[in-house]
Amino acid sequence: MSNLAARKRPTIHDVAAAAGVSRGTVSRVLNGKSNVSLSAETAVRRAVAETGYVVNRAARSLVTSRTGSIVMVLSEPQERLFEDPNFSVLMRVATNQLAERDMSLVLMIAGDDRGRDRVARYLRGGHADGALLVSTHAGDPLLDEIERSGIPAVACGAVLGRESVIPYAAADDRGGARAMTEYLVSLGRRKIGMITGPLDTPGGALRLEGFTGVLGRKAAKQLVVHGDYTQAAGEAAMRRLLAAVPDIDAVFVASDLMAAGALQALHEAGRRVPEDVAVGGFDDSVIASATRPALTTVRHPLARVAEETVRLLIELLDEHEVEPVVLPTELVVRDSA
């Protein structure tokens, strides 16, 4: 009998007794509620460690209607997940931050109709407490499904057209683009082109606004080519710019990955960087220091944006009001411009 008692799993009653607090206080601490004194929270967490108590997620979900999981919805084709290093940063930071609250991250790809249907069914089934939206395009039909589901959602980067509906954390895309364009102008470059991202994303639209805001009428149509944030798109767009404007002497590329493609196209065309064509990117990802020459770029505070996105979602889950967060960018000068 004593052996059975010794092997008995500790309960929330045991934690409360060890901490000298009520079961309700223990429950509030374990559920991350803020209306608990620091001394009580410290006592509960010490008692949890001493007793070896493990939260029964199934039992908790019956009481709180919480699943303990968050779904990250990536609205891009699956191959982008492995090509673009920014997504791994977002996933790593979000996973670590949620783990601090004993929550799990589930990644779902919604790059096509089948993917969007799969995510919609998952959300309707109540399998997640909230959603982190990544690379969401304006007009995405999944947005209506998310709103109908009533699930709390926060976007990493504003969702164009729904900025007042879906909270977000973002970098100052427009300001970063302005800084890069002004820098290229300060170098004496006269024919400055741009390779944009998709214009139904904030990184595409707002970075283009920053570029044209500096150049005004000098930002002629033939100097602007659109891409999709892939290296292949950057390479193809640079070739189009060279064909349309042979005397182009600078290009601002809306992502480091596309800039790597642009550098390849310039190399193949026999153009020297930065002597003939200066190249600036955006992100300051691991790619920026790996290109030859090393890429002058705009530092996107991606890890901080990811942290703020998760923080906003947790605030929503705790039924608090939230406001959008926009973080500053920084110009990083290397060898390409």
UniProtKB/TrEMBL annotation:
One Pfam family from the record: LacI
All residue ranges annotated as the HTH lacI-type domain in the record: 10-64
CDD domains: HTH_LacI, PBP1_LacI_sugar_binding-like
Domain HTH cro/C1-type: residue ranges: 11-39
InterPro entries: Cro/C1-type_HTH, HTH_LacI, LacI/GalR-like_sensor, Lambda_DNA-bd_dom_sf, Peripla_BP_I
Keywords: DNA-binding, Transcription, Transcription regulation
Keyword Nucleotidyltransferase part of the UniProt annotation: no
Alphabetized PROSITE patterns for the sequence: HTH_CROC1 (PS50943), HTH_LACI_1 (PS00356), HTH_LACI_2 (PS50932)
UniProt entry tagged with the keyword Transcription regulation: yes
Any one GO molecular-function label of the UniProt entry: DNA binding
SUPFAM superfamilies: lambda repressor-like DNA-binding domains, Periplasmic binding protein-like I
Signal peptide, first to last residue: none
Name of this protein: LacI family DNA-binding transcriptional regulator
Organism: Glycomyces mayteni
